Amino acid sequence: MRHVLVTGGAGYIGSHACKVLAARGYVPVCFDNLSTGWAQAVKYGPFIQGDLNDRAALDAAFAAYDPIAVMHFAACSEIGEAMSDPGKYWRNNVMGSLTLIEATVAAGVRDFVFSSTCATYGEQDGVLLDEDSAQQPINAYGSSKKAVEEILRDFGTASGLNHVIFRYFNVAGADPEGEIGECHRPETHLIPVMLEAIDGQRSELVIYGTDYDTPDGTCVRDYVHVMDLVEAHVLGLEWLLDGKESRVFNLGTGAGFTVKEVIGHARAATGHKVPHSFGPRRGGDAAALISGSHRALNELGWNPARSSLKVMIKDAWTWHKTGGYSG
Ligand SMILES: NC(=O)c1ccc[n+]([C@@H]2O[C@H](COP(=O)([O-])OP(=O)(O)OC[C@H]3O[C@@H](n4cnc5c(N)ncnc54)[C@H](O)[C@@H]3O)[C@@H](O)[C@H]2O)c1
Ligand SMILES: O=c1ccn([C@@H]2O[C@H](COP(=O)(O)OP(=O)(O)O[C@H]3O[C@H](CO)[C@@H](O)[C@H](O)[C@H]3O)[C@@H](O)[C@H]2O)c(=O)[nH]1
User: Fold this and answer.
1) Which residues cross the membrane (predicted)?
2) DSSP code at position 245
């Protein structure tokens, strides 16, 4: 049995990764403290409820399942929260990842896939960000992820820990079969917040800032479908299992959309207007983040076929209408 230890496997992206891993013949072992995840999202393999900062729980997980690799999704990942509570980000994301990396090396596991973010690039002069762009994070979330990238490089040199670092742009959509999806309480991400405004769970979407240097003054982001994203993770895992070198890959489409454009697509995809108002900027937001690299396409053979806003919003809407998880 080819077990893969999936931290954060009860969360949005991690649960989709578990589904795809299971479909490819791996056994995803979910390790998650359920701080923002859901036991109901763990459907495709064993579940260990544990915390990244609990070394004994990690050692027990490695001993019990003898995984061939680690996929590390577990983290705090809200930019607003990172601005007000940076300590939480350094403790959970950096110290937690260090504990996991040390446990991985101690267990003799050599291959490690890590969820990083385009937030490590921060604000840049050029719009397109490729893997060689300077990393100048403007919030503690981006700083914490950049620090983990550096830890991985150091452990790669010292201990031969081979790693693939994926820098995601904005992840959206849901499993088209409707088994799992994005469910955060409270929700902060743009597309699910729009859907909550459409169905009356909140009174409106507040657009954060209209005075950015972008085509219509609202922030530009590059949205990628969660199923495409997790397909890239399987390719990244197999890259490592084939013995290839440690590598960084952006996961984005190269197309940027303003918040107002996303609202327009939501109306078309759902048939409903998005009630919205205009508010001040949210601290820590970069004006525009767009992936300018073809590295994942060319080197991994990645094909982000589902990553149109139409499909992402349609799949998110189908999931949203199920009511999400409860408890
Ligand atoms: N959603 C995005 O657009 C996006 C973009 C870039 C990067 N990422 C990264 O992808 C990863 C997954 O994000 P997500 O959107 O699925 O978030 P999520 O909050 O849905 O999932 C994170 C999971 O990690 C678990 N977790 C957090 N801290 C833990 C700890 N100390 N020990 C054990 N489990 C812990 C949570 O309970 C949750 O199940 C994160 O690392 C995030 O930084 C997400
Ligand atoms: O109620 C809302 C929510 C969001 N936005 C805007 O919509 C855009 C997208 O915001 P959001 O969905 O919160 O995503 P980001 O803040 O861009 O961060 C996400 O995307 C990053 C990569 O860009 C990841 O690293 C993070 O984990 C993930 O939360 C931003 O311009 C926000 O200002 C609003 O205007 N109103």
Assistant:
1) none
2) P
